[in-house]
Amino acid sequence: MDRKIIITAAVFGMLSIIFGAFGAHALKAVLSPEQLTSFETGVRYQMYHAFFLFFVASRKELSLKTLKVIYNLVLGGVLLFSGSIFLLTTKNVTTIDFKIIGFVTPIGGFLLIFAWLVLLTAFFKKKS
To answer: Membrane-spanning residues where (predicted)?
Structure first.
């Protein structure tokens, strides 16, 4: 499981850098300042959760079940939260109006929050 988490974290981190550079250079000319800010939010949260996954993979005191739950929540959360933001903010470039998927952004955010909550409760339940 640790290997899978670290690979996912590395992919999320690498894609964050790629998307961040793409946003800063290629999209800057075609997105409004508000769209660019939203795009950057998606990039930032994706990178935060890449680091979060690295941290989780390093914690030997977490059970396999807890690791799997956190991993799946973060994977789904990043895909829904950041992914939907990327699609919604680039509608000028793709000419596809992804407004219909706008409802998944808060669902993704909830999954990310819940992943942190699972980590928090796992450490509260641990005996020192």
So the answer is: 69-88, 100-124
